[in-house]
Amino acid sequence: MSNPYVIRFVDAIQVLDSRGDPTVEVMVETVGGGIGRAIAPAGASRGKYEALELRDGDAAKFKGRSVTKAVSNVINYIAPAIQGIDARRQREIDRIMIQVDGTANKSRLGANAILATSLAVAKAAADTAKIPLFQYLGGIDSRILPIPLLNIINGGAHAGNELAVQEFMIVPIGFETFSEAMRAAVEIYKELKSVLKNMYGASAVNVGDEGGYAPPMKYVREAISTLLKAIKNCGYDPEKQVRISLDAAASQFYDESSKTYVIDGSKLAREKLLEYWKSIAIEFNILSIEDPFNEEDFEAYAELKKELKNKTIIVGDDLTVTSVERLEIAIKHNSVSAVIVKPNQIGTLSETLDFITLAKNNNIYTIISHRSGESEDNTIAHLAVAVKGPFIKTGAPARGERTAKYNELLRIEKYLSADATYAGKLLKM
Question: Which domains does the chain carry?
Answer without folding.
Answer: 7-130 (3.30.390.10), 144-425 (3.20.20.120)
